[in-house]
Amino acid sequence: MKYNIIIFPGSNCDYDAYFVTKNLMGDKVEYVWHKDTTLKTPDCIIIPGGFSYGDYLRAGAIAKFSPIMKEVISFAQKGGLVIGICNGFQVLTETKLLPGALLQNRSLLFICKHQYVKVVNISTPFTHIIEQDRVLDIPIAHNDGNYFIDEDGLKSLQDNEQIVFQYCDKEGVLNDSANPNGSLLNIAGIVNKKGNVLGMMPHPERTSDPVCGVTDGQQIFLSIKRFIEK
Amino acid sequence: MQKATIYVTLKPEVLDPQGKVIMNALHTLGYNNVTEVRASKMFEVTVKAEKDADIAKEIDEICDKVLANPNIETYHYDIHDE
To answer: Is it true that domain B2-81 has CATH number 3.30.1280.10?
Structure first.
């Protein structure tokens, strides 16, 4: 299978994603510069973490006007797999490929730490090999990860089973003390209605290589690989 | 030339942690009558336009497309001659 990783000025997790998909998963990967106007025949697009355009205006707000985003939106609308990690999640909400928005953390602090997340939806291409409600250790590193959506939007997310990851403690308990940033319902990741676009604040590419001590992030990349190669 | 002074604010139902921290600081300083602080963004946008031209439509578009995120923010503006 083949990934395309989109690079914006300010992306900084692009090589992490490249390393994991290529060196650990053995997949084909190509970078795509944000000014490009064509994709490079991907099975899955990764919008990596970082601070595209310095997070000016709002995180992800300027990236949505990059030329390549037209192609990314069209690819997603045709059912292609897109995963946005951290700043990538913010870009996906700004482009409206995903509902809601990421606000500043309620603590007003940049948070960088290991975080437990519960996989509450295993019917997506990104999670289908994982056991329901498994707790994964996937680190977060963000200033604006506080997921918000209005009441109707939240109901729609729940009705359509779009919530995929929720922040939890080691035992999988979802409570406020396990919520690092103030996200509604401890939401850490969601998919669109069709299920082919995933946004998540935690960084699976940072816990995939055994040298990191934890390899839980691999579950996401293995799911994608099996989905494409099945 | 005309200039639009645009204010983009979080919707009332959206938590504004920054405003809350500022309010707490004001309380610490003894301003206990302050009951709420909401932080917002202000933009000054200068537009090439005749004195009497109506630029409101253009400013609305700019706000809807770029300056404000309708999921979380609202905006209002004043337009004046430069």
So the answer is: yes
